[in-house]
Amino acid sequence: MELRHLRYFCVVAEELNLTRAAAKLHMAQPPLSRQIKQLESEIGAELFERSARGLRLTPAGQFFHEHTLQILEKIDTTVAAAQRMARSKRVMFGIGFVPSVFYGQLPLLVRELRQKDNVELVLAELTTVQQVKALKSGRIDMGFGRMRIDDPDVEQENLFDEPLMAALPEGHPLADTTPTLAQLAEYPLVLFPAQPRPSLADIMLGLFRRRGLKVTVAQEANELQTALGLVASDLGITLVPEQVKRVRRDGIVYVYLADPGLTSPVICSRRKGEAPSPIMQEANAILEVLVENRRSGRYP
């Protein structure tokens, strides 16, 4: 399947008439008709209903059209960005992150890098496992997560250990306390992210299991905001890193835990053995200052 086949299909889907579509594409009708039939054969589904009155999209055709438009729009946007970079001589720098690290220092790093005239910053929300793959493929240059991953091509730096807090529904019996894990284990748990794993969800479960505590998982969510919404709906409680308390949400109370040693690491991943580019050197310098501010208490 070639890109031109997708563009041909979209024009035919918009016109619902092969003659008009061929004219719009500046080509003859018979080859266009053959291209569409080849596309249907490759997909293994009819995309159009053909009748004397003309063409009509099948349900499969409607689905394919909707997603093909998104693909072509993404391609056009990417090509335009690449052309801008070529003209401006900007360097692309990719950062991957898990959502729970985006409420503290990371936005400040992003803001600083965005002010550099020679940098085209690309952000990607990825789990730590996905970040490792993206680093090895060159999709990103730096990743921020919470999981230790053993990979010979990736080096990981523990920036700091962040205290965990309990997110409770407003009015919860433990809302005005400093609860232990044993106390929290008595209540249903909202787990996130559900997929892909391993993730922060496994860190949470591990904390309970290592203490011989059994928990009841009431609900799993893929997104942090969804998990907080479930807690606010009184479906259960959850554990979150300290910086998440910056998310002000009605119906949620954040409390510190009785054991201050219950923490989650913030880990920076980079490609191992690679000489740092000038942009990476700048990013590392900015990050060093931000982490020192965090460790010294100048920024929570």
Your description of this structure?
The structure is a single chain. With 300 residues, this protein is α/β, with parallel strands linked by helices. The protein contains ten helices and eleven strands. Strands 3, 4, 5, 6, 9, 10 and 11 form a seven-stranded mixed β-sheet that branches. Strands 1-2 form a two-stranded antiparallel sheet. It is globular. The chain starts with a helix and ends in a 5-residue tail after the last helix. Belongs to the LysR transcriptional regulatory family. This is LysR family transcriptional regulator. Keywords: DNA-binding, Transcription, Transcription regulation.
- The number of helices is 10
Strand content: 15-25%
Derived structural class: alpha/beta
According to CATH, the fold-level topology of the largest domain is D-Maltodextrin-Binding Protein, domain 2
The ordered H/E elements are: HHHEEHEHEHEEHEHEHEEEH
The main sheet comes to: 7 strands, mixed
CATH arch. level architecture of the largest domain: 3-Layer(aba) Sandwich
Rough outline: globular
Query: Percent of residues in helical segments?
Result: 40-55%
Q: Specify Rg, calculated over alpha carbons.
A: 25 Å
Q: Poorly predicted ranges (pLDDT <50, ≥5 residues)? A: none
Any idea how many domains?
3
Instruction: Compute the separation of the termini in Å.
Output: 51 Å
Overall pLDDT metric: 89
**How many beta-strand segments?**
11
**What is the CATH superfamily classification of the largest domain?**
Periplasmic binding protein-like II
Top CATH class of the largest domain: Alpha Beta
Organism: Billgrantia bachuensis
Pfam family, one: HTH_1
Protein name: LysR family transcriptional regulator
Keywords: DNA-binding, Transcription, Transcription regulation
